[in-house]
Design brief:
- The chain has helices at 11-14, 65-70, 83-99, 101-109, 116-123, 144-155, 169-174, 185-191, 211-216, 234-242, 256-259, 275-295, 327-337, 366-373, and strands at 2-5, 23-25, 33-36, 52-55, 74-76, 136-140, 159-163, 180-181, 194-197, 221-225, 246-251, 264-266, 315-322, 344-350, 353-360, 378-385.
- It is an alpha/beta fold.
- It has 3 domains: 1-82 and 274-303, NAD(P)-binding Rossmann-like Domain (Rossmann fold), CATH 3.40.50; 83-111 and 127-266, NAD(P)-binding Rossmann-like Domain (Rossmann fold, 3-Layer(aba) Sandwich), CATH 3.40.50; 305-386, Alpha-Beta Plaits.
- The longest helix is centred in the last third of the chain and has 21 residues, at 275-295.
- The structure holds 1,4-dihydronicotinamide adenine dinucleotide (NAI) and 2-oxoglutaric acid.
- Residues 37-38, 57-59, 82, 271-273 line the site of 2-oxoglutaric acid.
- Catalyzes the reversible oxidation of 3-phospho-D-glycerate to 3-phosphonooxypyruvate, the first step of the phosphorylated L-serine biosynthesis pathway. Also catalyzes the reversible oxidation of 2-hydroxyglutarate to 2-oxoglutarate.
- One of its GO terms (molecular function) is NAD binding.
Amino acid sequence: MKVKLFNKIAEAGIQQFDETKYSFSEDFDDYDAIMVRSAKLHDVAFPASLKCIARAGAGVNNIPLDKCSEQGIVVFNTPGANANAVKELVIAALILSGRKIAQGVNWVKSLEGEDISKAVEKGKSQFVGPEIAGKKLGVIGLGAIGVQVANAAAAMDMEVYGYDPYISVQAAWTLKSRIHHAKDLKTIFEECDYITVHVPYMEATKNIVSAEGIAMMKDGVRVLNFARGGLVDDEAMVKALQAGKIGSYVTDFPTNALMQFDNVIGVPHLGASTPESEENCAVMAAKEIMDYLENGNITHSVNLPDMQITQETKYRICIINKNIPDMISSVSTALGNHGINIENMASKGKKDYAYTILETNDEVSEELVQRLQEREGIVMARLIVK
Ligand SMILES: NC(=O)C1=CN([C@@H]2O[C@H](COP(=O)(O)OP(=O)(O)OC[C@H]3O[C@@H](n4cnc5c(N)ncnc54)[C@H](O)[C@@H]3O)[C@@H](O)[C@H]2O)C=CC1
Ligand SMILES: O=C(O)CCC(=O)C(=O)O
C-alpha cells in the first residue's frame, strides 16, 4: 500500500504502519491513501488507485469533499486530537489581545544599545492593558475546541457566552453549567468584550463575523480568529480597524492588509503546532487509514458514514454507492446470480452516498467485484480477503 504525504506528518503516525505492508513518499503518482495537514488538494488529480484521505487535523476545507465522494474516496479527519493545543493558544491570545505583551516584547528588543533595565521602567506605562477576569467572552462554535476554550476562560473568571445551534450532546455535557447560552449571534456581538470563533469554514459559515456583526460590537472589542481566515470578513475588519472600532484582532490567518495595523497580532497558523497535537493527529489518522484499507472499517469520516464491523467471513465486499433506492437489492441479486450467499450485511447512508459491507464465505473473484463497480449508482467496490 502506498501512502502519499502532502505535508510533514509526525513520525509517531508513520510508525503505526507495518513497514512490510506500507510505503511513504511525497512523490508517488499512483497511491492508495493520502495523509495531509493544511496542503490544498482542490487542484490535485487523484489517481484511480486512491481509496482514502486522512486529514491529520480538524478542518477539511482544503479537501474537495464532493469530488472525493463522486470518486469513491473516503475522507477522514481527527476530531478533537488538536483541540487542547488550540485552546492553550487561544487562552494566550486572549491575554495578548489586551495586555500589549507582544508590542512590549518587540519594544524591548528594539532597545539594543540602551540601558535596558532603566528604559523598561521608564517606558512600560505605554504597554498597560486590561485583565480578562470579569470580562465577557463570546465563543462562536462549541465543538471540541470551543467547549475547551469556554471552560478554560470560565475557570479564569471570565463571564462566557456560547453560541452553537448545532451543539452535540457530548459537547453540551462537557460545557460548564456557568456558561451562558447565547441564542443568537447578535447576543454575542452586542454583549461581549472578547469574541472568539471556532466553527468550520464552509459556505454557510463564510464571513460569520460580517460587517453587520462587527457594527453591532462594542467599541474596543477584542476579536480572536483561530479557526479559518474566511470566517471573518477581512475587508470589514480592515475598515473597522481603520475606524478605531476594534481594540485588537488576534488571528492565526494574517494577511498583508491586516498586518498594517499595530493592534493586529498575526500568528503563523500555529493553533495545532505542538508536538503533542501533531502526534495525536498523526496517530489517529494512521489508524483510520489502516482500518479502512485493511478491514474496510470507517471511523471519523466527513463524507461517508462511520461503520466498524469485525470481519467474520473469508470475503468482505465494501461498496460506496449513491444513496438511492434498490442499490442493496441490485447488488444482492447480482451476487445471488453467482451463487454467492450473503452471511452478514450492513449499510448506512450519509447525505447523497451510502456505505455497504457484505460478507460471505463463498468464493468471490476480483473480476466480479470489478463488474459490481461498473453498475449504475456504485462508485467504488473493493474486495478484502482474510
Ligand atoms: N488554527 C488551527 O491550527 C486550527 C484550526 N482549527 C479550526 O477550528 C475549527 C473547529 O475545530 P473543532 O472545534 O475541532 O471542530 P468541531 O467540529 O468539534 O466543532 C465545530 C463546532 O462548530 C459548530 N458550528 C457549525 N456551524 C456553526 C454555526 N453556523 N454557528 C455556530 N456554530 C456552528 C458545530 O456545531 C460544532 O459544534 C476547524 O474546523 C478548523 O477550521 C482546528 C484545529 C486547529
Ligand atoms: O495541521 C495544522 O497545523 C493545521 C491544523 C488545522 O488548522 C486544523 O486542524 O484544522
